[in-house]
# Entry
Amino acid sequence: MSHENKNIPDSLPSNPEIPDFKTLLKKQGYSLAGTHSAVKTCLWLRRSIKDKGECYKSRFYGITSRCCIQMTPTLMCNQKCLHCWRPTEIDAPAPNVWDSPVEIVGYSVAAQRKLISGFGHSAPRELWLEANEPKHVAISLSGEPTLYPYLPELVEEYAKQGISTFVVTNGTNPEMLKRINPSQLYMSLDAPDKDTYLKVCSPKSPDLWEKINESLTVLRDKDTRTAIRITLIKGVNMFNPQGYAELIKKAEPDFVEVKAYMHLGFSRKRLPREAMPEHGEVMAFAKEVANHLGYKIADDVEVSRVVLLSKDGKTSNL
# Structure
């Protein structure tokens, strides 16, 4: 595959017409949880609570979508990725004081219950009641969670409440990755080389590429379950599957997710709809990565345009 970068715009909009940060969060369906955390329900939670389907993570990892909180302990990020759904053109304000892990867990559960309260009369009551007792939290959503200084304690606090945790990181903070032990540790890998990384992710410092490579070796030594996620953007980073595989070999993850970029949120201001690869294209690319890695296709979900690779060709439950 040739490296064309044909979908990277020459420049970003100088006036993206973005309102103030709190107004923006409200318009996008976020609920603030304390002073710097946020919760947002996803499409699959809303479908699951009405018994109309589950997220691909249900098939891959046994997660019940209606019982999953999607949250972030900080809206700040050190990258401005082309494919991000949030408004990377503005920076989230840094908090004056960090909320404690105990406060964030309480705030996030309360925010989730408030967000789903309207489903009490439109969903099967037993499913709605089940959703009010979350069993899982995806610590990702928006922003980079490893910038929250008490992330290890936050993961532990959720565990005390009987809530399993997925932490999704961009890999730029390897020292924090050494300290956290979630149920599953995800790391995004959106480029096969440094030049592409700089174009796709616009990091605050080019040195973050070296941090990402360090984080790959950190993942290799983790006892917790690990996964690498590649988001494919057609005409931008969808080339050199061997390059991705060589990087992934450093991490030796339990799973690799190869997923299509989705034309959502503020990414629509940066990328054309044509940047979304079809599921067949994602599958073809995933097979090439798998061949170079020695992994196998474990499963795929066409509606989400995602393919799962694993060492033994099997999925797994928490």
Summary: The first helix runs from residue 21 to 27.
